[in-house]
Design brief:
The chain is of the alpha+beta class and 150 residues long. It has one domain: Histidine kinase-like ATPase, C-terminal domain (Heat Shock Protein 90, 2-Layer Sandwich), CATH 3.30.565. Helix content is 30%, strand content 27%. A five-stranded antiparallel β-sheet has the order 1-2-3-5-4, covered by helices on one side. A hairpin with a 3-residue loop joins strand 2 and strand 3. Helix 1 packs antiparallel against helix 2 and helix 2 packs antiparallel against helix 3. The longest helix is centred in the middle third of the chain and has 21 residues. It starts with 10 loop residues before the first strand and ends in a 5-residue tail after the last strand. The N terminus is likely disordered.
């Protein structure tokens, strides 16, 4: 039907790894694989990769105290609506959705460092949810929908 997204076969991958920057390439490869599976438009694939990179790097840099080992789990799932990214860590509780958005009217030199990645994710995603789970820790869900078929 006009305006609906095409049907896509179920697809899911996940990877649990140390929360270190060296683990970023294989995590982003999973997102690329999902985009290829969905035959996602180039702009959608770009947005998903950017959001995945921002979210993963935030966990890698800020979730665990300096010198502490920690893990990151990324689950990438294709649905009939698009691609869902689920990120989990057992680091310091942090709700990125509670963070104040940056003031776009401030000069770059007057802004506090940080917060732009979370703002970017909010702007690019079709859905973003956060919860602190007693067993899983921080759980961030990012969803990007396929564009309607014209």
């Amino acid at each position: 039907m006009k305006g609906e997204s095409p049907l896509v076969a179920p697809w899911q991958r996940q990877r649990s790894c140390p929360a270190t920057l060296g683990e970023l390439p294989p995590l982003l490869d999973m997102v690329r694989e999902a985009c290829a599976h969905m035959d996602a438009p180039q702009d959608m694939a770009h947005d998903l990769l950017l959001m995945a990179e921002e979210a993963c790097v935030n966990i890698m840099r800020h979730a665990y105290p300096e010198g502490a080992d920690g893990t990151l789990l990324l689950r990438v799932r294709c649905t009939h609506r698009g691609v869902e990214l689920v990120l989990q860590d057992r680091g310091i509780p942090f709700d990125p959705l509670a963070a104040e958005p940056p003031d776009p009217l401030l000069d770059a030199m007057d802004r506090e460092i940080g917060g732009l990645g979370v703002h970017l994710i909010r702007q690019l995603a079709d859905r973003v949810d956060y919860r602190r789970d007693p067993a899983l820790g921080n759980v961030l869900v990012i969803e990007k929908h396929l564009p309607p078929v014209s």
